[in-house]
Amino acid sequence: MHVINGDLTVAGDITAEHISGRPQVRPPQIGPNIGNQILAQTAMAADSTDVSIQIAVTTGAEPLDGGLFSVQFGKRYQGNAPHVVFSPGNAAAALVGAYVSDVNGSGFVLSIAPRVPAASPVVPALAANTSYVWNFHVIGN
Question: The domain at 29-139 falls in which architecture?
């Protein structure tokens, strides 16, 4: 294995069996709750890196729509804002209208879509006292 300390630019294709983020001196962090959101518990998986992040949230008694939590990267992404791809990590997270917002080189916010009227296809709101898990993959741009 060869170790490169610094940036690497490749003008061409890269073929790999796996791509992993390495543990960092300063791992990514969960920021403060957004707005008036009161969460019973928020935890980031211990093996999270700026490339691969897993966050578990347990809502409080009255969860709100809008910004749920923010993530600050351990090391700022240079250039354009990175692309953040995410997926639900449990059934509860699959049922809510979550989306990534406010992406920049320093981090991003996971937000919950507002509740829709009963006349529209229903997007469930966050449930009280419920655990949600999301997985994130961050790709520099």
Answer: Sandwich (2.60)
37 vs 34, 41, 51, CA distance in Å?
6, 12, 26
Which helix H or strand E contains 103, and what residues bound it?
A: strand 98-104
Q: Is 38 helix (H, G, I), strand (E, B) or coil?
A: coil
| 73-110 pLDDT per residue, tens | 988 998 899 999 999 999 999 988 899 999 999 999 99
Is the model's pTM score more than 0.85?
Answer: no
Measured distance CA(27)–CA(34) in Å, rounded: 20
81 secondary structure, DSSP code: P
Per-domain boundaries in the chain = 29-139
Length of the chain: 141
Question: If you ran DSSP here, which 8-state letter would residue 92 be given?
Answer: H
List, edge to edge, every strand of the sheet that includes 52-59: 39-44, 52-59, 131-139, 83-88
Query: Please, what is the end-to-end C-alpha distance for the chain in angstroms?
Result: 26
Place of tokens 């990175």: 82
